[in-house]
Design brief:
The protein is of the alpha+beta class. The protein has one domain. Helix content is 25%, strand content 24%. The strands form three sheets. Strands 1, 4, 5, 8 and 9 form a five-stranded antiparallel beta sheet that branches. Strands 2-3 form a two-stranded antiparallel sheet. It has a two-stranded antiparallel ribbon with strand order 6-7. Strand 2 and strand 3 form a beta hairpin.
């Protein structure tokens, strides 16, 4: 199953390194696009997968209690300590195990959301070789100051600047779930878990204090839409029946 996804930045977007407790000068992540012959702001696929995995661990027990999934869950399992046995670990992969059934691409800035359907039809790998789909997004720099918890004043050395992506910039990426790599997991339950986790992104941060609107462009294997739960979630996220 391949899913095309657009993330539309709702506020100032940032995907960079550095600790949240003490934010040093930070630039957003970049990747060089051969088609444009320049580096552009990119949301790393590894970051997105980690974000989705984290939410999957949190919502999986609730999904089981409500009958959405039946696979084993582990409330003590999390990104830092994977058990390798629960449904989330089996779908998203776990440390020291075989290849993960779930692959998440990088998310790249696109010219307009209308281009997303063309990109999906080609696949992101082929579309990345054509320059008509991608555009470096506008960015701006915001200077902030860290306030000391001790005296409520500006902390010494606490002045920092972060590069942000402007609101309403659309990013495109894809998620692929390889059924052949799913072991002891019903593919339908895997679809439901992934769909529910994608929906959760509309209610959480998708970057450094960044919020995005999630739009599903399309699903390659539309047979998954025969399932009522998967269809309800993906249609609410933008899939056309």
């Amino acid at each position: 199953m391949r899913i095309g996804i657009v993330l539309i930045v709702k506020n100032l977007g940032a995907w960079g390194s550095g600790k949240e407790e003490f934010e040093a000068d930070t630039l957003t992540m970049r990747t060089t696009l051969p088609a444009l012959r320049e580096s552009v702001v990119t949301i790393p696929g590894s970051y997105m997968k980690g974000l989705l995995r984290g939410w999957a661990y949190k919502i999986a027990p609730l999904l089981k209690k409500t009958g959405v999934i039946r696979g084993d869950t582990n409330e003590e399992c999390y990104v830092g300590r994977t058990c390798g046995k629960c449904i989330v670990c089996r779908v998203f992969g776990s440390r020291g195990k075989e290849f993960s059934p779930l692959h998440v691409s990088n998310f790249y800035p696109i010219v307009t959301t209308e281009k997303a359907h063309e990109i999906f039809a080609k696949s992101i790998e082929l579309a990345l070789m054509e320059k008509d789909y991608w555009a470096p997004p506008p960015t701006n720099y915001v200077t902030r100051v860290r306030i000391s918890d001790i005296d409520g004043r500006a902390a010494e050395g606490g002045l920092y600047t972060i590069e942000h992506v402007s609101p309403e910039v659309p990013f495109y990426g894809e998620i692929t779930l390889y059924e052949s790599l799913l072991k002891d997991v019903d593919p339908l339950e895997a679809y439901r878990l992934v769909a529910c986790t994608l929906g959760q992104l509309n209610y959480s941060y998708v970057g450094r204090r960044t919020r995005c609107r999630v739009k599903i462009v399309d699903v390659e294997d539309r047979r998954v839409l025969k399932d009522e739960i998967v269809r309800m979630i993906l249609v609410n996220l933008g899939v056309k029946i």
